[in-house]
Fold IS3 family transposase.
Amino acid sequence: MQAQQAAYPVSALCRALGVSRSGFHAWQSRTPCARSQSDARLVAVIRAAHEEHRQAYGARRLWRVLVSRGESCGRHRVARLRRQHGVITKRRRRFLRGRSSYQCAPAAPNRLAWPFASPAPNRVWAGDITHVPTREGWLYLATVLDVCSRRIVGWAMASRQTFDLAERALHMAIVQRRPPPQVILHHDRGSQYTSASYRAKAEAAHMLLSMSRPGMPYDNAMAESFFGTLKLELMPDRVFASREAARLAVFDYIEAFYNRTRMHSALGYQSPAQYEERFNRLGYVP
């Protein structure tokens, strides 16, 4: 009614909506109750946290962020206010991946069985390659992920999907983490991972190569899941102007946000860095 006052008489609006004129005028002069004022303040906090975490968190994660910052609120209240004020998480695009029939033995045995787990950091790694669209063409990204903490321990980018791309990501992981012998290194059956040079690099670090079954992307679901998360949160409706712009955005996402800040429900709503800190406090040595 308040929005339509300039176009229609108040008496006509009251008749149409079945309210009294005195009730409408009393509502206009009434100050918001304490609960409404508290909700308005909390909505502003929710919006700020929503933008800070790149619109990636649902109600449960966002509620945990608020509680960690000293806000006294319930999860259902956060969900209600998000819904009422249009605070919406970025939506993942659904798609079906075609798969071939089961084939013979893979190039390396599949050592990583579902449910994917690792008792400590630097015990099981998984990696894959994806592409990021730019106006200059694809930017290819290779990553190596620690299955225990979900941390990206190695990554590399290039304008072409070369054999060297996967090797540079693995080299970064080895240099940064200095893993013990017998780490399981799991990939799909891409040519970059079945090459002799990649095998030699893994064997020189005393790693155990593991590969998915033919036509079964779910065997490498953890690496695929990271790429889905990256594309959802970094570029849902975005094409980068250049490969260099994409490089900077991917670097910032992995090193500043994903590894150090982004909560994972599987890690007890901790970031990969926070989760690994628990092992450091217990005196874990790789």
Q: What stands out?
A: Residues 103 and 239 are 37 Å apart (CA to CA).
